[in-house]
Amino acid sequence: MEGGSECRVNRSVDYSPWVDWSSGCGGRTVEARFVVVGLELDLWWWIGARFGPAETTTISRVMGAEEFGYNVKAQTFNEMEDDDFNHFSDSELVYHVRDALNSVSLGDCDSYNQLVGVMHHSKGLAPDEVALLVTSLKALSGAVSYIDISLHEALLSSIFDMNMWNYGPDVMDALLGLIISLASSNGKYVESCLEMLVSSFTPPFSFMDMLKQPRGIAKKDQVLSRVHLALKHIADLVPLAPSKLCPIISRKMPIYEKEPMVVVYAENMLKLESGAIGEFVSSTMLMALMDTLIDLDVDIGWDGILHDDSSKGIFQMEIEDMDEFADYDEEDGTEDTLLQFPRELSRKSLGGNSTAEKLDSLMVLTFEHLKSCEVSGRLTEVFEPLLDSFRITVLTAYKSKFAQFVMFYACALDPENCGVRFAVLLADIFACEDYPLSFRMSAVAYLASYLSRGNFLSAPLVASILKRLVDWCFEYCNRKGGEMNPTSHRLFYSGCQAIMYVLCFRMKSMIDVAWFKPHLLLIEQILKHKLSPLKVCLPSVVEEFCRQAEAAQLFTSSEEFNFNDLLESEHSRAFGGMERLDMFFPFDPCLLKKSDRFIRPHFVYWSMVRPPYDDDECISDEDVVEEELDLDVSKMSITPRNPLSYWISNGLEEPRGMPARIRPSTSPESL
């Protein structure tokens, strides 16, 4: 060979006659590459599946090479960058990486450190740098059994810190191949591999603005499709991986990050729920998402919202009136009046608004997922973990404001199955003595609001659930003697108020259910009992119920039910407790603007109700529904139109109307 020339060796030829080296490999086929540059000879040797330390390999005779007495050393990664390393086969590169890994235990870390440095290459890579990174990752995939969790901690750390969003498809594929190999090679690496993949659910902050652009959407699909495929491969290879994945996903939920980041993360959770490993993680993903909704819900501060105003009548608090309040300016001379209302209405807390926006977007994402499940026939399947989550998380949350609408929407999509299951669950919890008192009171509050507001619930179903409540209250009256005691009989008063509240919305339809009429008569006996529920329950509910009952001639004698100008008594406060569960109507109109479009078609607003005392019987129900649905989204009126601005400007007391205790939203749209 002449200087500067290169000899490509035919690997099918037995070069053993020319090779005699200290490892005693004579007689075996070798692969060699000779590069003669001046008086320097760089030579790679790979023999079978074993490769001795190349740095100390001495060639005694290679085509006369012993004449020069060269000591052949391993080519470094720096030299690889300068040279045309594409001449090397995959197996050759694997052997070189193995050598670099093995050399650490011998105290020689040069090649290893250079390998670690290659892993740190990320943004703005030149084509040759990309090729080097891809080649190195692939070589590491073939040498994972040589990686030691202690000796090679720096290398592992650099690998797990790599962000998929920073690379192109070639690097992503090579990186995920390495991650899958690591996870399947040693159980010690499984959690780290899963954490690395879960970290790729969301892009770097610098990338967030691109997610709305075509290029960003394409990049998102490139990354996440590969991440989920890798998770599937790991789950196939490591059966316990899904059980390790679920807590990682729950722990890494970026709940306090900006809205787009949280939404992208939740999208991945729902993709897992309906994906290839859904059978292992579905329940956990849904429950974790519900936990997130509740966490955001409780972060929206409602402290003191309309806390002492129950005497004003919970049925007349309209959304449009709240909007008018929000539009008032201190210069209008209404500052003193505004001080009576939640601070959120007057100062529009930015913190609360951003949280409400985040919650709103997550709920929309959840609604869309439920709709896709309904289309694919999976809704009944996913409803089970939702029920569990509601019972464990939502029902125990203090006056949850919005998260419960996930259940409402799921029930609306499948009234005959999900809708019935939810109502029965709430009734069962109310009647079960194994649950704590506050738990049972909360359940019956949910039940009353649900039966009143769901336009998808049939009259027979509502009647059957009301029958259970009436029977329970009637039996309670027979078992309990004594006089009125709001504190001792809180559950009883909760049941009575639930019955009256539902009938305020459903009086006409319940009267039309023939088999339910005897139970309507039982209600009169319950309300006349010495426990005096009419004197304890929320006055606005009692008053509206009595008006309708009298107009419908529900009772044999209506004289005892004349409660004009009712004011809240200490009795009502006592039965509601510090939590004021007497004033908790969890399915009042949803004030999250984006979520409302999913709820509105299935919702009964108070303005749609035509009570028996309404003389305007010429308006058909269809006309009422059509008129209501044509209203602007922000005008979810539930009572006759008596704008608060009129009463404020004239210094008059607000008129009392009928239930729907609506708590104002802190989302920008509703303010």
TrEMBL record:
Record GO biological process: transcription initiation at RNA polymerase I promoter
GO cellular component: nucleus
Pfam families xrefs: RRN3
Keywords: Initiation factor, Protein biosynthesis
Gene Ontology MF terms: RNA polymerase I core binding; RNA polymerase I general transcription initiation factor activity; translation initiation factor activity
PANTHER family for this protein: RNA POLYMERASE I-SPECIFIC TRANSCRIPTION INITIATION FACTOR RRN3-RELATED, TRANSCRIPTION INITIATION FACTOR IA RRN3
Entry similarity comment: Belongs to the RRN3 family.
Name of the protein described by the UniProt record: Rna polymerase i-specific transcription initiation factor rrn3
Organism for this UniProt entry: Quercus suber
